[in-house]
Amino acid sequence: MIIDEVNQRKQEIHTDSYPMSIGEVISVYQEGDLEIHPEFQRFYRWTDEQKSKLIESILLGIPLPSFFVAQRDDGVWDVVDGLQRLSTILSFVGVYKKENGELGEPLVLKATDYLPSLSGMKWSNESAPEHEIPKEIQRAFKREKIDLKIIKKESGTDTKYELFQRLNTGGSSLSPQEVRNCLLLMIDKSVFQWLKDLSDNVDFISCLPLSNKQMAECYHMEIALRYFVYKYSTQESRAGISDIGEYLTKEMTRILVSDEFNYETEKAEFELVFKVLNDILSEDSFKRFDGEKDKYSGPFSILVFETIVSGVIGLINASEDKSISPLLLTETIQAKSKNLVQEYDFNIASAKGVRGMDRFPKLWGFGQQYFQK
């Protein structure tokens, strides 16, 4: 059985490997045959010190890890892994292009442990020639070889996305949602922008008392994604998946990148849900209510989110059908929110040790029933 599975999957992946000089890679990039996705740069957080250490390694002849690219149907190579390293190299030699197509600012190097004289140096510096990389070093730099692993276009359709996810998780500086954002940008940039715009909605943000670090790592976008994944989750789609992060990534493309997904309708409902919550509970929307202190306390709770949102969606739909008045809508949300932590079913489903994949369907279903009582 395992032999058959290995042989079958190996046939779906076609790869090649060969070294190229940095000068050749620069030429391929300038000719438009290498796409490094400059829009990904918003998720990578390399400092100038880290970039300078990479350049130092190349100048000293220290081998770099392989770069992975995927060949598209039009022959262009999409960088799957090594984007930050390649963009650093291109920025250093002054040919890196930003998302709008304009040339980016050339990298100004920092002093490194082995090459402190790199401080303030640039590839080209007409105004201060003493801070320009000498020509002999430039030639040697462009002759250095890097190893390219090429995923050929004959490979399975999802191979490059799967490889990108595997290579950019675990030990990566990217958060799980930043990896998903890159995947979504590779698949459909317009869908990424749609999700980003929703996650930046003022009412939505006001309901989420997140830290600056969480916001920087796009956790608010993950919460927006969870909204749609939870809403359209099915028992069949959850079968065989034990990790919530893996499930979010898988369902992101199934749900959002679909001809059946009505972006305008979904956007309108999303904005209405969080407008109602912001008007009634604001930043307390997804906090636990402390009965003894008679106030909401603690940070944002994903457990409360999974329960409250499903219930509010149902209430809003009922309100639009004239079966619940705006006043009753407000009173119901306030009461249900405060009493939630006292509910037996909520505490059982959200107890420590309950896996996310087992928890969220129970809380989502409970929330729908709880708000209708």
Low-pLDDT stretches = none
Helix content: 40-55%
SSE class: alpha/beta
Q: Beta fraction of the residues?
A: 5-15%
Distance between the termini: 51 Å
Give the number of helices: 18
Domains, number: 2
Spatial extent as radius of gyration:
25 Å
Describe the structure.
There is one protein chain. By secondary structure, this protein is of the alpha/beta class. It is 52% helix and 9% strand. The chain is built from 18 helices and 7 strands. The strands form 2 sheets. Strands 1-5-3-4-2 form a 5-stranded mixed sheet. A two-stranded antiparallel ribbon has the order 6-7. Strand 6 and strand 7 form a beta hairpin. Helix 11 (219-231) crosses helix 13 (244-256) and helix 15 (302-320) packs antiparallel against helix 16 (326-339). The radius of gyration is 25 Å and the shape is elongated.
List the helices and strands and how they pair.
Layout: H1 2-12, E1 15-21, H2 22-30, E2 34-35, H3 48-59, E3 67-71, E4 77-81, H4 83-92, H5 135-143, E5 145-151, H6 159-167, H7 176-187, H8 189-199, H9 202-206, H10 212-216, H11 219-231, H12 235-238, H13 244-256, H14 263-280, E6 288-290, E7 295-297, H15 302-320, H16 326-339, H17 344-349, H18 356-370
Parallel strand pairs: 2-4, 3-5
Antiparallel strand pairs: 1-5, 3-4, 6-7
